[in-house]
User: Fold Sirohydrochlorin cobaltochelatase from Halarchaeum rubridurum.
Amino acid sequence: MQALVIAAHGSHLNPGSSEPTFAHAETIRAAGAFDEVREAFWKEEPSFREVLRTLESEEVYVVPLFVSEGYFTERVIPRELRLAEWDVSAWDSDGTDADHATLRATDVDKTVHYCGPVGTHDAMGDVIVERARSITEGRDLTDFGLAVVGHGTERNENSAKAIHYHADRLRRSGLFAEVRAVFMDEEPEVDDVATLFETDDVVVVPLFVADGFHTREDIPVDMGLTDDYRTGYDVPTAVDGVRIWYAGAVGTEPLVADVVLERAADAGADVADAIVAVRERTRSGSDASAEAATGRSR
Assistant:
C-alpha cells in the first residue's frame, strides 16, 4: 500500500487557508493512485505530528504544499514527522531544486519519501501560465506582461529564489511579451507594477498557496486596484494607463494537483495514470503548447 500526505501550513486566523489543500487532495483521491490520501497542517488538524499514525500504508509520500524551500520544509515538517535521519543536504539543492529523500519513520515503522515543495517544481510554471489564462479572457498572452509576485523576506532568501526561478523560465519560454519577478517586501515592489512594464496589459499572478490577507487585501491595495479591498475592483483595472489583470493566489489553481503528483512521481510513486487523469480534469485545451514552451513533458 502507498499513501500520500499533502503537508500545508494552515491558519487559525484565515479559515480559507486550508481550502486549496483539501481541494487538491480530493482531486488526487478521485484519481485513485494512492490507497490513502491525507491532508496535514501546522496550524490546523490533522497535524504534521500525528498524520503518519493515521495511515495503514507502510510507504508514504510526503509533498509540502509550500512555495519555497525554507524553515518549514527543511526543519518543521521533518521534525514533526520524526524523520530522525533527515538532513537538508539530502536534497542537494541550491534553494530551488530540492527533489526527495527516502527515510524511515521508526516510531511508526514506515518508509517516508520526503519530497521538495510544490512551489519550486518546474511544473509550477505551467500552473502560473494556466492561472494567467484563467483571468485574461482567452486573449493572446504574447500581448501581456507577466508579474510573478512573491512575499520576499530577509529571513528566507530561498523565498525570492523561487519567484526569480519561475520568472526566468517563463521569460525564456516566449509566452509573454515581458516577465518580471516582483515582491511585497523587496525590490522591485508590487506597488510599482504598473510602471515596470512596457505592455499595455499586465497579468499579475501571486506565487502564494492560498488566498489570504496578502492576496485579497494587501496586494490589490498596493497595486492601486482599490483604496479599500472590501469594495472590490474590476478585472482588469486601469492603473496609470496600464490594464492590470489580477489573478489571485496560484495555489488555488486546480492544476496544482498535477504538481503534487509530479513530486510524488519524481520520488518513485506509481502515479503515471493518475497524472494523465488529473491533467485531463484540470487543464484547458491550450495547455499542451504551454508545457512545450516551458520545457516540460512526460
Residues 285-290 have pLDDT under 50 and may be disordered. The first helix runs from residue 19 to 31.
